Description:
- The structure is a homodimer.
- Chain A contains 9 helices and no strands.
- Chain A is mostly helical.
- Chain A is elongated.
- The N and C termini of chain A lie far apart (47 Å).
Amino acid sequence: xxxxxxxxxxxxxxxxxxxxxxxxxxxxxxxxxxxxxxxxxxxxxxxxxxxxxxxxxxxxxxxxxxxxxxxxxxxxxxxxxxxxxxxxxxxxxxxxxxxxxxxxxxxxxxxxxxxxxxxxxxxxxxxxxxxxxxxxxxxxxxxxxxxxxxxxxxxxxxxxxxxxxxxxxxxxxxxxxxxxxxxx
Amino acid sequence: xxxxxxxxxxxxxxxxxxxxxxxxxxxxxxxxxxxxxxxxxxxxxxxxxxxxxxxxxxxxxxxxxxxxxxxxxxxxxxxxxxxxxxxxxxxxxxxxxxxxxxxxxxxxxxxxxxxxxxxxxxxxxxxxxxxxxxxxxxxxxxxxxxxxxxxxxxxxxxxxxxxxxxxxxxxxxxxxxxxxxxxx
Lengths: 184, 184
């Protein structure tokens, strides 16, 4: 495995499992088995490493959500599948919450670089729900209705992600699923 | 001000604004203007200080939510008032998110002492919504319906709290308000 990938994999695991602020550069260097010079050759700072980690998880998360949605045909099935996917993820022993909300939890809101990336990912989740709810309908009204509903479902989505971590259990994903379906 | 209170006030401000893991014991000692010995006389560990801070915020938060709910008479008004309260809180410049969800974001789920306290606070929010929705109705069915609805509204509540931090804006509280009312 090349050095850059080894750094990213190690940092990603540690940032997700124990948190960004609890992970020191020295632990990353040690567990990735590289030199300090080598790390700083690839990343100017720990924050640059954080942004690269979030960028990678961002792409993977959106792929997973779009794949889950694609297993359904009707709007209800697509929405349902996204929350089913969450319940499976939240029920696995590796689940430590949402990568993005964890960072919003631990990083002060003044950090624009990190918050811009978190917002970008959340905007894309909202857009995915809007797309699903628009359901090939055209016209301003259909679009406005879809957007309004989408943001309500997105809040259920983020609430359930946090709550699954708080309770270390998948039930919030299933409650969110039922609640979202009742909104349609 | 007595020493114990000065320690708690300083730690609370720092934990909330910059995060628990980013706050070192030395910064608390310095900003509270006390000695290290004095801090450890009052608190055995930084985690003990965290638990006391969360306990105090817990009591205050539940008081605030109950006071907000009490401004309404009908179920809709009470639910509405809780989210209006959130939108005011989220719109203030001091808002740094939910004290409890921030900790769930930054502290690994293996930390039972902290997670038990977070769960206790979230359970009480869920109970408050259940009480409001039960609305003096008696009978098993009314209670079951209220509980089911309450958990959906609680997920909107937590989702909006996180989202208000992510976007540094109060709009998610207002979307959650509308969505919650549409569930009634």
